[in-house]
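Progress narrative, work stream C.
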Amino acid sequence: MEKFADQFNKDHLINEFKVVVADAEALLKATANTGGEKLAEVRARAEESLSIAKARMLDAQAEVLARSKAAAKATDEYVHENPWRSIGLAASVGVVVGLLIGRR
């Protein structure tokens, strides 16, 4: 269960980071017409940092995708090897969820 929470946190982090990168790119484009040698230097460093960050985020996204596929495959194999246990587990979870919903 901890792996799924970690997976969700990574997915959330990736999505948030994509928003930050998009906002930073929009800021860089908005200031592209603004002159000044110092500003151009800062803009160049920011663009380089963004490109590095994008590459790292793509690597992290690929890793998350690979882990998700591995987890899905392991789950599929387990269900095929232990169908009755899987049915029992699913029924138990359904009963617990039903009881919790019924209390409200």
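Work stream C, second folded protein:
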Amino acid sequence: MDEVVLGIVCRRGRVLLVKRQKDDDFVWSLPGGKIEAGETKEYAIIREIREESGVDCVAVREIGSRVHPVTGRPLSYWECRYHAGVLYPRISTIEKAEWVTREEALERLGEMLFDPAKDFLTSCSVSHGI
């Protein structure tokens, strides 16, 4: 099964989210996607964030991993540091990208969010990113 990477990018106390197509609707999520053949997790998360949001970042560390409770796909969550870029999604399955507060991110992502990712978002502050 395809492994998926998701990135948490904090900048000035805000978190990067994307509004992704899911079935016939759009839902808020962390940017990320499938690891392609020959890619490392670090490269995949950098590529996916750039494609989905227009933001260039650096993969800092893996926050945690799990098997998604609904899809059964292996997921890994990554702390990513903002480097440069403006919000401009480059793929059709992303309706928009937005910097939101931690509180908005937690609300939009919902209860199914992986606990280590929630913990990281809760601690996301001005010191994460520029």
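Strands lie at 4-11, 14-22, 25-29, 32-34, 56-67, 74-84, 94-101. No further action is required on this item.
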